[in-house]
Amino acid sequence: MSRVAYRPTPVFQATNVFGRKWAPSLAIWGVGTGAAVLYLLSVTPLVKREFLSKVPVIGGYWEDKIPASDKPF
């Protein structure tokens, strides 16, 4: 009759397997969530001024070109 031998898995190997299995899915969900947050918050002046206008190639799209005299507040 055969015996059942228990060999504990090292912690780093278990986390490595977990990371390889879930990393692509978590990365895709993270990028999608980040894009959705930027899209939803792109109408707020703080996000436009501090983040979107500083994107290298397309940052000029979000620059505020309205003169200060035409702004009500």
TrEMBL record:
Protein name stated in the entry: Uncharacterized protein
Organism for this UniProt entry: Phlebia brevispora
